[in-house]
Amino acid sequence: MTDTANLRPLRVDIISDVVCPWCAVGYGQLAMAARRSGAVLDIHWQPFELNPDMAPEGENLREHLAAKYGSTAEQSAQIRSQLTELGTALGFDFRFGDDMRIYNTFQAHQLIEWAETQGKGHEMKQALLKAYFTDGKDVSDPQVLVQTAEGLDLDAANARAALDSGAHADSVRQREAFWVQQGISGVPAMVFDRRHLVTGAQGVETYASILEQLGAAAPRFS
Q1: Can you name the residues that pair with 101 across neighbouring β-strands?
Q2: What average pLDDT does the segment 68-74 reach?
Q3: I need a labelling partner for 109 at 20 to 30 A (CA). Which of 13, 173, 180, 203 fits?
Q4: What is the DSSP string of 21-75?
Q5: pTM of this prediction?
Q6: Contact, 128 vs 148, CB < 8 A?
Q7: Left, alpha or beta for 174 (phi > 0: left; psi -120 to 50: alpha)?
Q8: What is the C-alpha separation between 103 and 114, in angstroms, rounded?
Q9: CA 61 to CA 65: how far, in whole Å?
């Protein structure tokens, strides 16, 4: 049995978006690496909008990717298959469909920040990733966001009030701007111990190596 009682929690700032599939994969890989190595992580989710200028109705995901990155239908299908396999190995269920849409996530990030004040920011992030990628929900819809909060036993009226008032809007904008100013232009991006930047979903073994190098992994006894 691994003894983690004396391990110092390692702060990890994860800059990501709730409509970013590689963000779900990257976190899943990091979490698996931490479980295997006995590392104790102090996760801080940081906001990033892949599509800050997205229209309220969103866009068809495949058409959006084709226009933004020049992806062909075949390339899109291949990437979706790869993500689905990676997700399955990590216990995350991607359910891509041809009618899947992508949305703006500014309010979703506000809800995560509000949930942080309730002690459930991490749970909200995970719930929104599932709502979008597994359940196919519109995570720009305030009603969907409030229902997601309810699913975590958070007060629906308070969640609605936080969104309607925009109480966290300025803070989210400031946090987004901070990370862009630090040179973050794509996600996921992880900053370990406030000093070491790792971009992209790097795989379980790579994250395990990083945790070991930073002294976050429990010692192994033969």
Answers
A1: 60
A2: 85
A3: 203
A4: HHHHHHHHHHHHHHHHHT--EEEEEEE--S-TT--TT-EEHHHHHHHHH---HHH
A5: 0.92
A6: yes
A7: alpha
A8: 20
A9: 6
Residue 72 pLDDT more than 90?
A: no
Of the candidates 87, 106, 103, the one whose C-alpha atom is nearest the C-alpha of residue 95 is 87
- Whole-number Å distance between alpha carbons of 75 and 48: 25
Q: Could you tell me which of 107, 120, 133, 108 has the C-alpha nearest to residue 43?
A: 120
Token duo for residue 8:
């110092």
Short-list 204, 178, 181, 202, CA closest to 190: 202
Task: Decide if 99 contacts 64 (C-beta within 8 A).
Answer: no
- Is residue 197 helix, strand or coil? strand
- Token readout for 171 is 């803070």
Instruction: Provide DSSP, 116-152.
Output: HHTT-HHHHHHHHHHHHHTT---TT-HHHHHHHHHHT
Q: Give the pLDDT confidence of 158-169 residue by residue, as tens digits.
A: 999 999 999 999
**Whole-number Cα distances in Å, 68 to 61, 99, 108, 131, 207:** 10, 17, 22, 24, 29
Does the structure show a pLDDT above 90 at 153?
yes
**Tokens of residue 29, six digits:** 């890989």
pLDDT of residue 221: 43
